[in-house]
Amino acid sequence: MVETLLVVGLLVAVFVGFNIGGSSTGVAFGPAVGSDLVSKLAAAALMTAFALLGAWTAGREVIATMGGRIVPQSEFTLAASVAVLFFVGLALLVSNTFGVPASTSMTAVGSIAGLGIASGTLNEAVMLEIISWWIVAPVIAFWICAVIGRYVYPHLDARLKLDRSPGPIVVFDREGAVPRPRLGPNTTPRELGSVVLVVVIACYMAYSAGASNAANAVAPLVGNGAVSMNGGIFLAAGAIGLGAFTIARRTLDTVGNDLTELPILAALVVETVSASLITMLSYLGIPASLAVSATMCIVGLGWGRATRTVTIGEAIGGNAPEMSVDALTTETSETVPRVGEESARDLGGTDLFDPGTTGRVIFFWLLTPSLSAVASYLLFATTAL
After folding, report:
1. Cα torsion for 49, 55, 58, 63, to the nearest 10°?
2. Does residue 305 contact residue 347 with C-beta atoms inside 8 Å?
3. Quick one: pLDDT at residue 178?
């Protein structure tokens, strides 16, 4: 019976990791795929490799938190672990079915919290710390990117010009015995450098996703000793890779094409700030949402860019700027206007967000952790596992 239950637990862990891969790959590589910088296949391979690296390093602390600090390890019986993981996977499957990148960490913590509340063993101090960071981290992400958008982004845009030219970035000269790579017909050295930089940052984001999300798949099994720490990390990374190569295609389309058409430079800033924030929290043992932080980075960056129409003095005097995230799509000339010299019309840009898709994403971010927490509580409150 125990062996059968362990097999079921491993299968459910793979199921959870599979859905995590489908969700997190879209968040990490959606902008790069949407800008035709990498293919979906290459994104899946890179996601798998760097998620494993993230889980192997910073991910250990998050596994320890979710596997024994939110509720005692003694509560993670094999049956309880299977049930917790099942609710996580079910909530994520619902989200991925609709092609929306879910908040996997919030969903997993919700399921564990449901167990803790039902059994009366929830560590309220740890839970309060986690929830506090869930509130503070998006605010930090917003304001960091708001400052960058107002004071730094226009200067970067004017100097770097990370625009994507038509055609292949690299072609191969096959005239010799050994094919030699060279720049595509429309590619400049600056563009090649920008492409490499965007892909590197996407890999960094995949690293942070692995660091934060591997625990969501295996923490209960590691907590009760059914799986070793290293074994759990390999299991989680393999399952994430499976999801990256399969169902991630839907979320890659959602983030890369439907939700937002970020300029390459904006995607670079968003990925750097959100990945750094989540990596820092992972080393602290805090499970946090990469998807939420990345979205708040986008909003903050666009908001900061839009506020350049007024100075701080004018804003204090009651002259509020017209706020629009669409300001990110406005091209900056080589000579950057001073703060207060641009008008709302200058920053009109093009539509950055699809309101319908954005609303759908926010709805599922709220739905998935609520669904896992309520289902977990009802099960453990009515049965003894």
Report:
1. 170
2. yes
3. 72
Residue with tokens 């362990």: 6
294 burial type by CB count under 10 A (0-12 exposed, 13-18 middle, 19+ buried): buried
Q: Which residue(s) pair with 353 in the sheet?
A: 260
Mean pLDDT, rounded, for 301-305 = 81
Give the mean model confidence (pLDDT) for residues 269-288. Answer: 92
pLDDT tier at 310, thresholds 50, 70, 90: low
Report pLDDT for 175. Answer: 72
Of the candidates 79, 149, 177, 89, the one whose C-alpha atom is nearest the C-alpha of residue 300 is 149
For the chain, give the mean pLDDT.
Answer: 80
Q: How many CB atoms lie within 10 A of CB 277?
A: 23
Cα 159 to Cα 6: distance, rounded to the nearest angstrom = 57
Bridge pairing between strands 180-183 and 170-173: antiparallel
Are the C-beta atoms of residues 176 and 329 closer than 8 Å to each other? no
Cα–Cα dist 33/291, whole Å: 17
Of the candidates 77, 79, 114, which has an alpha carbon nearest to the alpha carbon of residue 225?
A: 77
Give counts: helices (H), strands (E), the chain: 14, 2
Q: Which residues are CB-neighbours of 352 under 8 A, at least 6 positions away?
A: 260, 261, 262, 298, 302, 325, 326, 328, 329
* Location of structure tokens 């939420």: 292
Q: Are 378 and 350 in contact (CB under 8 A)?
A: no
Reduce the secondary structure of 107-153 to three states and give it as a string: HHHHHHHHHHHHHCCCCHHHHHHHHHHHHHHHHHHHHHHHHHHHHHH
Nearest alpha-carbon partner for 275 in 206, 190, 182: 206
Collapsing DSSP to helix, strand or coil, 180 comes out as strand
- Outline where DSSP puts E strands in the chain: 170-173, 180-183
Instruction: Answer for the pair 377, 117: CB distance below 8 angstroms, yes or no.
Output: yes
C-alpha distances in Å from residue 144, one per residue of 131, 155, 252, 269, 317 = 20, 16, 26, 10, 24
